[in-house]
Each structure stands twice: as structure tokens, then as C-alpha cells.
Amino acid sequence: MDEAAPLNRYQLAELGSLLAEPARAAMLLALVDGTARPAGELAQAAGISPATASAHLRRLLDGGLLALQAQGRHRYYRLADERVAAMLESLSLARAPALHALPAKGDAQLRRARCCYRHLAGALGVAFCATLLQRDWLHTGTRGLQLLPTGVDALVGSGLPLPNVARLYGRSCLDWTERRMHLGGPLGVALTAAMLEAGWLRPLPHGRALQPSADGLRRLGLLGVSLD
């Protein structure tokens, strides 16, 4: 995807055609969590044969929505970048009102906490971002959102094993279930990885939902993060 110039009508129509096929849409949604998956796994997620999946994956690669990662003989597919994930999330906000309801299965879990291209989204992600901003721990600059030293100290003091985040920048990402911003970009990815490492969050076996632990909710609550 080219971020330097806006889409013209032909590019927009091509993008629409890439997303209009349910099998391709299913494969893209399977990768929104930021993982890289083999073609066979994506074929299974889409409910199609490997041969059919191969043709769809080629179209998505040619359209700039996917990237290919090779490890020896193995080939893995992932979203081209975080902008593709943000586009897929934002499309949910553009749907007709009658289509805004989430599927019943996993509704509460997805709304509460989920992974959006490896960063924390859902009600917990929105509350976490809001707390960082309200407490002046997160600074909005020309290069994006940056965690200030006071924020680093507060998070480390709460037991979060932070890597070197001083030079990492984040970006605001509009949450499709909460209609408010959560923290994305490299900074959001690093903070979410730290929460997973600390056991504050754990991924559920299927889908993008994340389960906050009791200790994680307690420590986040001490920082001022509340789901109420």
C-alpha cells in the first residue's frame, strides 16, 4: 500500500475487489493479529483447498496487502504492514449500522481485550492508552506517541519488564469496538509484548482475544487503568 499518495478510483476499485472475496477476507482476518502463517493454515481458515488458496494468496501479494516471509523451505504469509491491519479494523467502523454487531461467539472476549497486529486493543487497550495520556506519561510529538521517562518508571515500578522503549514511537489506532483510540505502532507492540511476558495477558487458543490475568488487572488498576 502506498501511503505517499491517495488512492485513485481505479486503485480503490482494485482494493475493493481484493476484499470482496470471502476466502481472501478470511485469510486477511486470520493475519490481523500480526502472525505469519503458512498457506495450508490460511487455506484451512478460509475453508478452501490449498490450490485455491495459492491463487488467492498470489492476488493479495500482488495487491500489496500481504508480504511473504521465507525460512528455509518454508514460506509464511503476513500482512504487508501495520497500515493494512489498521485499514481492516477501520473498515468495521464504516459498515452500515445494522452490520455493526459483533458475532455472538467470543463477543465479550473480543470487546474486552484482543490483539490488533500485535498490540493491545479492545476496552482494555483503550483504557490503557487513555490512562497513559491522562497521567502525562505519553507524549504526542511530530514522530508519533512516545513514552516519557515518568511513564517508563511507573510501568517498570508496577512490575512490567520493559525493553529499551526510549526510542520507540507509537501511533493512535481507532478501535473498531470501542470507537476510541488505543496505542499502536512499535511502542504499542513492545508494551503488549511486555504484558504477555509478565503474565498480565495471555492469548486464548483460537482467534485474537486476550485474557487478562487477575494479577494483571490488579497491577493495571494500581496504574489507574479501569475497565469500568
UniProtKB/TrEMBL annotation:
Under CDD domains, the record lists: HTH_ARSR
GO MF terms on file?
DNA binding
Question: In which domain of life is the source organism classified?
Answer: Bacteria
Its lineage reads: Bacteria, Pseudomonadati, Pseudomonadota, Gammaproteobacteria, Lysobacterales
Q: Could you tell me the keywords of this UniProt record?
A: DNA-binding
Which organism is this protein's natural source? Rhodanobacter soli
Name of the featured protein: DNA-binding transcriptional ArsR family regulator
Start and end residues of each HTH arsR-type domain: 4-99
